[in-house]
Amino acid sequence: MTQYQSALSTLIGEVLADPELAHQDVFRRMLQAGLQDLVDAEATAKIGAARYERSPERTTRRNGTRPKTLATPAGEVDLQLPKLREGSFFPSLLHPRRRVDKALYAVICQAWIDGVSTRKVEHLVRALGNDTGISRSTVSRICGEIDEAVHEFLHRRIDHTWFPYLFLDATYLDVRHRGRVVSQALVVATGVSGEGRREILGMALGDAETTDFWTEFLRSLRERGLKVATDADPLGAILVTSDAHAGLKAAVKAILPGAGWQRCRVHFARNVTQKIGSARSKPVNALISTIFAQTTTEAVTAQYQAVTDSLRGSFPEIAAMLEAAEPDLTGFAALPREHWQKVWSNNPIERLNREIKRRADVVQIFPDRDSVTRLIGAVLQEQHEEWSYGERRYFSDISMRKLVHTLHETAEPARPELYLTA
């Protein structure tokens, strides 16, 4: 017999030893034990060795477990998912993408029932096996299950840690509203926690990216526990990365005092191209990119000035843009060098937007605003969980400690009156 005994055989042994256990929720426990054995077996296949086994085929090692509660017809079962020292593991039997597929299915069904779906959507519904139609009760049941989980996720508290970095961006979706198809702004906020891990912080849907809309969205994050940086406690939101939308900038200044703003360098390059054309912008953007190739704060400042001066004669309009944008394009420079590449652009959240668009393109026109929240909220929840399951941090623990040290060094001494109470 090996040192490792399966969960199911252990439970059977307990039942045989004490017959009373056979009447105490034993079916749910047997299901839990069986699922745990399947999870462990899949982990063994991925690792190349069983627990405590020495094998030349081993590719990595176990590194503890993380809990996962699974809802089943027999009740909730608690599983332990193995963690790996290298790479990540999520058992295929738990279907990490199932919630998104159910949300997409529910949106398509709702579109068909309301009679607003396109021919492509109707073909897709039939391809899913619904040749004779879909009942309203079935759609209501599916939507109810998804809406509850998505609402809980989007309104959860986010005060469990501090978020030094925020990334904000918007994309547009077509939604049917009052008998017309209108374009709606979907805004998403992601953050990097004090532990160096990425999280989805929230989303909102509105008519346009106005100052009021962004202000309301950021205020909702504050109300849910997003911490701002102060002189007395610098461990809060310190940098927001986004495009140069005037409404967003105004909202950040009003709602997130103490946070700097980093203008996305990719968006700035697009602005340069729009200004002088594609052909002429290539060498100019190549020159501007040398600013971001520097390795020290002083070098970034010096190169920025050199690039601006070199463009003043041939491209005075671009030189003026650079002069106006200097504090915004170089917001990253005061932070640890290890963080620069991941905070000076909105590329991380744009990859998330591409996943949103991929799902939304299947629907094409959402039947209502609730269906947007249902589907996109499910997409964001699944992405959030994938980031949580991943073993690799967005920023290393060492670089995050360096950030904390930098913030405490640069924080102004707290004034005594800050500690006075009314």
From TrEMBL:
Keywords: DNA recombination, DNA-binding, Transposable element, Transposition. Pfam families: Transposase_mut. Belongs to the transposase mutator family. This is Mutator family transposase. Required for the transposition of the insertion element. It comes from Brevibacterium ammoniilyticum. InterPro entries: Transposase_mutator (IPR001207). Residues 49-73 are annotated as: Disordered. Coiled coil: none annotated. Residues 51-60 have a biased composition (Basic and acidic residues).
